[in-house]
Amino acid sequence: MFQKIRYRLLSSYLVVFASLLGIFAIAVRFAFTRSLTEQITDKLTAIGKGAAANVEFEKGRLTIESDFRPQDLIAYHQALQWFDTQGNLISQQGKTSLILPFVPNKIVQIQTGKIPIQAVTVPIIASDNSQLVGYVRVSQSLEESHETLQQLDLGLGGGIFITLVLSSIGGILLTRQAMQPIEESFARLKQFTADASHELRSPLMAIKINAELPLEYPEEIGPKDAEKFHAIANATKQMTRLTEDMLILARTDRVSNQDRNTLNLTSILENIIKLYKPQAEAKQIHLKIQLTPNIQLIGDSVQLTRLFTNLLENALYYTPSGGIVEIKTSRVGSQLYVNLQDTGVGIAPEYIDKVFERFWRADQSRSYWSGGSGLGLAIAQAIAQNHGGLISVTSQLGVGSCFTVRLPTP
Ligand SMILES: Nc1ncnc2c1ncn2[C@@H]1O[C@H](COP(=O)(O)OP(=O)(O)OP(=O)(O)O)[C@@H](O)[C@H]1O
Ligand SMILES: [Mg+2]
User: What is the pLDDT of residue 371?
Assistant: First the structure.
């Protein structure tokens, strides 16, 4: 149980932490990409302005000054293009593969894809009449900055991975530390329950013996007192059962491995059925039995007897006379299934999750006098889990219930 809580705590902590780191990484990546693009834009704009200053506009024609050496201006991964006002290419220099469609009113163009390119278009303004005479476009292959970004991604990813690994280790230690006092106090509470139930046994026994003693001489005490002693004896029997149940419940999950033996579940079930047959017959309930012979299990026979006794007792108790209780075993792979199906009162769907809770009973009003305390199924479930199995239930109100015990076989 604590393992599960610990695991849940740790995983939710890691999910929160990982999302925070993810957001952080995305923000860093975004800011970095933006500033990189801006930097390149600034650089390309400066080149473009330089190139624009070196053209002449004569008689409506754009020419590049003869002494201008554009290769001094641009690097190997850049290209320079001149366009007239109509967007016709007049001249170009540098890496010719950096060709994008010309869009005059778009200052910055970015092409992602196989060869990432960024281009900046600068208008050429004639110096004498301030008229637009053409455009210069400077392009640059972004391969280099992509490499930088890849390195950043790698760094961020690696950093996040290492941080997550480290914080999981820290988280494991922290949750262990945080859970320890809770686990300890839980164990103390359990020990207290076990001790208290155990200590209650002898005084209860004394009350029971002393209440039953006068009943053996009814002529001495008269019918009125006899009734009172009966009531005391009955109540004591109930309390004895309750304390025993509490003791079992407090102890079930620390069953030692030495109590576990290979046992024959078929014969355990047969013994229980033999014991409850008279009760079923008295209530005119038809017991249908269908057992696989020689089912081998590893477990504690006292506990498993208790488990199936509790289920059968319920089935007989909650089935009206004339009903049918069916016990069936089957095997799927390494799992053994024991089905107890009855045609009893059934359990309402809203309560189906509650039946295994301690002290829960569908009919609370009956609790004291009808003998049950509502611990039967809680004990059965604890025993099943203790054996690596589980009890599940399906039920329909007024039709019947089916309890299925799943147990692993060796
Ligand atoms: N076969 C069944 N058919 C219908 N209702 C059931 C059946 N088994 C259990 N229940 C419901 O689940 C409740 C809890 O069962 P559980 O065995 O834990 O307690 P109990 O039988 O009332 O008391 P105890 O078993 O401690 O004597 C019961 O009170 C009953 O309402
Ligand atoms: Mg019961």
Answer: 61
